[in-house]
Amino acid sequence: MNETRRSILESLSDGPVSGPDLADALGVSRAAVWKHIDALRDVGFEIDSGPDGYELTAVTAYNGPTVEYGLEAPFTVEYHDSVGSTNDLARTRATEGAADVVVLADEQTGGRGRLEREWEAPSGGVWASIVTRPAIAPPQAPLYTLATAVATARAVREAGVDARIKWPNDVVVPTGDDGGYRKLAGVLTEMEGETDRIEWLVVGVGLNANVDAATLPAGATSIRDEAGDVDRRRFVQRLLETFDDYRTDLETVVPDWRELTLTLGQRVRIDRPGGELVGDAVDVTDSGALVLETDDGRVTVSAGDCEHLRPV
Q1: Structure pTM?
Q2: 258-272 burial by CB neighbour count: b if 16+ within 10 A, else e?
Q3: Which sequence spans correspond to the domains of the chain?
């Protein structure tokens, strides 16, 4: 966001401020203040003009400037009404050298999940991809996936939905006590680097927010269906702020993931390139791998598709 406009919003957040006072404080003309106010109104900031000056009365729009306003995390938000894939565009930004950029869209026309699966991404959802350049070794990269899943689940819980996590990266809503669930969100992580370092990492979130569940694939649900519409602007802010906290304190990721998981304690089937594996999910390692108790002993699985079969 333009720094002058950011300063104007900060001034207006404390109450009405006159045009001349804003001009003096910012070192610009009154005409420039008016132009900046007009531009802020155009992107969704509701600013009234009264006898005491300009006053910010509401922020209801969902776009880059409004998400950045009040965001307590160091991200720049690039917003699009519609985009093919936020992850694809975020990868482009990463190769261009970007860092701490969030590609955000109202809808995706070519959304995808793990293994290049199609992902329904209609208008009203939260489709966001974060470009980061973490100073970690590649084996720690899965912690960013888990951190994003935890941040997403916590934001959903604040919205009034009993969100849990299915290993490794799905945010779900339980449907009973037998491990059943409806899928609410997914996380897709992509990266580029070398043996000892990560050049860039993109972590994408696809979440069914203000979407009718009836329009989604079978087995999916939405925040709207579970608890009513959510303020997406504030939701994204909370998600980004929580993710930012976790990436600076990776040791807390796995313990918090354990508290929210639906998978531990379940009988599961893991589909992986080397074949199918069935066992009881008993733990996750410090790097986020799933530990299974199988008929042949304990096995640690670092990647694969997980299906809940029955409670242990």
Answers
A1: 0.92
A2: eeebbbbebbbebee
A3: 3-59, 64-260, 266-311
